[in-house]
């Protein structure tokens, strides 16, 4: 007998720290995404992108801890309840939408604008992403496509379920020994459908909740920190402001909060860059090393500094 969606959610939730341990929880979410990709890079393209996105959100959180009074990050917006599954109209940044937050808040800090409410929305979005799509990866790995089919809810059929069905068909063809291009095409398009699901169905409420200034900052800071495809080969780091134009971005004429502007950037810049990087995946490559570091929960230098600051000021709520 299969599991309910709540049981799958409880299972993946049990692998990560509670929401009160903000920085540590983020690193664990990043590690889980990386582990899913490393376990099956042929299938879980979306999870690889999500690992990079979640890592960047974590860096923003750590920087915010350094730039603001102790405890201010964990206390921002604490009146909201995160324990129940959110309504479709209130979902906070599900799935790879985190990939679009990137180091956006670092621009805010550099300008002296500590937009804690915006950061809190992004932090909640990172949690919501894991809650919304993590269960489906666990269910697919352990129970197959049938576990997703029996737990899908209204509005998820076209992209979330449709995406995993395409991934499953590609997997089945690969298992049968097919040497054609079709299996890879199906798997890639299935992962793009997962991306469309969170962009069209679940990410927009997060951008809508940002302040006007926060939307400009998010647009300026939306850049994926991909590693180089191979040693000595320059890395491509897709940037929204480079794609849309700096003047257009800073004036708000083009914004990552606009779904059409955002998808144009994803389709024309992010996905081609990730596809090229994904194809480079092999033992010893920069991509594999970075994802292994994510999976091992190796902290960046800013995390060490933030941890020292917490000890110095005697705060532990966001460890």
Description of the molecule:
This protein has 319 residues and is mainly α. It has one domain (5-313). The protein contains 15 helices and no strands. The protein has helices at 5-13, 22-39, 45-67, 72-75, 104-110, 116-143, 145-149, 157-175, 182-209, 212-221, 240-244, 246-250, 259-279, 286-295, 301-313. The N and C termini lie far apart (38 Å).
Helix and strand topology:
Elements: H1 5-13, H2 22-39, H3 45-67, H4 72-75, H5 104-110, H6 116-143, H7 145-149, H8 157-175, H9 182-209, H10 212-221, H11 240-244, H12 246-250, H13 259-279, H14 286-295, H15 301-313
Helix pairs in contact: 1-6, 2-3, 2-6, 2-14, 3-5, 3-6, 3-15, 5-10, 6-9, 8-9
In short:
The chain is an all-alpha fold. 64% of the residues lie in helices and 0% in strands.
Stretches where pLDDT is under 50 for at least 5 consecutive residues are 77-114, 315-319
Tell me the span between the first and last alpha carbons. 38 Å
Radius of gyration, whole Å = 19 Å
Query: Average pLDDT, to the nearest integer?
Result: 82
In total, the number of strands is 0
Structure keywords:
0% strand, globular, 319 residues, mainly alpha
